[in-house]
């Protein structure tokens, strides 16, 4: 079993739809949960992060973490064609000096059709 | 602020050759991490450099080595290239005292091994 599992999709939705992206994980030591967006042939850019369990909202984006189920989600409201990208979840157990080792999911390729 | 820069953008090498990739961190950052992202996969952690030393290493063979210079820039070297080394190589910079969500990724170097 991989440490982080993410459905690679692809996922195609009409403009304006609510998108739900999910990851599951097996390592209970993970404390930091990140969502990155990666456009084709570009590096990942951080969308949101959450520490431990709970919800976090930023504009059209909401991140949820359920540590009891080892399950995280990213919701995108009123999706736009510009949201078309690959979305990667990433996790880490550490802060400070040993924070380098992010564990990523495979990424979900999202396409929002006008 | 130029952000994280990487060079070259892409290159093609032959199996058995050696390659050097370069990374300049975001201004003010002192830590550089390298990731390998194969096609259709999430990034995998190779190693991290801080104070010119390798601080953490992922599950990669010794053919992968690196260096950090006094100006915090970094190099990734791969010897005896294999076809399976074809991937996007990402550099991420951060502050050693920062959180795992504070890694900024460069655009990557796409390596093709033929």
Note down, in words, how this protein is organized.
The complex is a heterodimer of chains A (114) and B (114). The model of chain A has no long low-confidence stretch (mean pLDDT 92). Chain A has no helices and 11 strands. Chain A has 114 residues and is mainly beta. By secondary structure, chain B is mainly β. Helices cover 0% and strands 50% of the residues of chain B. Chain B has strands spanning 5-7, 10-13, 19-24, 31-37, 44-50, 53-57, 64-68, 74-78, 87-94, 104-105, 109-113. In chain B, strands 2, 4, 5, 6, 9, 10 and 11 form a 7-stranded mixed β-sheet that branches. In chain B, strands 1-3-8-7 form a 4-stranded antiparallel β-sheet, with no helix packed on it. The radius of gyration of chain B is 13 Å and the shape is globular. At the A-B interface, strand 4, strand 5, strand 9 and strand 10 of A face strand 4, strand 5, strand 9 and strand 10 of B.
Question: Could you give a quick summary of the protein structure above?
Answer:
Chain A has 114 residues and is an all-beta fold. In chain A, 0% of the residues lie in helices and 54% in strands.
Mean pLDDT of chain B: 95
The whole-number mean of residue pLDDT values of chain A reads: 92
In DSSP terms (H or I, runs of 4 or more residues), the helix count of chain A works out at 0
User: What structural class results from the helix and strand content of chain B?
Assistant: mainly beta
Q: What Rg of chain A do the Cα atoms give?
A: 14 Å
Report how far apart the termini of chain A are: 37 Å
Q: What is the global morphology of chain A?
A: globular
* Total strand segments of chain B: 11
* Percentage of residues in DSSP E strands of chain A: over 45%
Chain-wise SSE layout:
The complex is a heterodimer of chains A (114) and B (114).
Chain A lengths: L3 E3 L4 E4 L4 E7 L6 E7 L6 E7 L2 E5 L2 E6 L4 E6 L8 E8 L10 E2 L3 E6 L1
Parallel strand pairs in A: 2-11
Antiparallel strand pairs in A: 1-3, 3-8, 4-5, 4-9, 6-7, 7-8, 9-10, 9-11
Chain B lengths: L4 E3 L2 E4 L5 E6 L6 E7 L6 E7 L2 E5 L6 E5 L5 E5 L8 E8 L9 E2 L3 E5 L1
């Amino acid at each position: 079993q991989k440490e982080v599992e993410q459905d690679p999709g692809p996922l195609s939705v009409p403009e304006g739809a609510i998108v739900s992206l999910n990851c599951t994980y097996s390592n209970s030591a993970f404390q930091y949960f990140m969502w990155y967006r990666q456009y084709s042939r570009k590096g990942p850019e951080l969308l949101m992060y959450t520490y431990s369990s709970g919800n976090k909202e930023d504009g059209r984006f909401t991140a949820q973490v359920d540590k009891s189920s080892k399950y995280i989600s990213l919701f995108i409201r009123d999706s736009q064609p510009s949201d078309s990208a690959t979305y990667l979840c990433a996790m880490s157990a550490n802060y400070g000096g040993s924070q380098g080792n992010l564990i990523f999911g495979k990424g979900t390729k999202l396409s929002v059709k006008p | 602020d130029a952000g994280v820069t990487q060079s070259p953008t892409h290159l093609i090498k032959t199996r058995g050759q050696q390659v050097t990739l370069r990374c300049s961190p975001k201004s003010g950052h002192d830590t550089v991490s390298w990731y390998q992202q194969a096609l259709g996969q999430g990034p995998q952690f190779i190693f991290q450099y801080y104070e010119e030393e390798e601080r953490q290493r992922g599950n990669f063979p010794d053919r992968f080595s690196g260096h950090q210079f006094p100006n915090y820039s970094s190099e990734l070297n791969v010897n005896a290239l294999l076809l399976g080394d074809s991937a996007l190589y990402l550099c991420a910079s951060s502050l050693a005292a920062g959180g795992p969500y504070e890694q900024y990724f460069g655009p990557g170097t796409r390596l093709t091994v033929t």
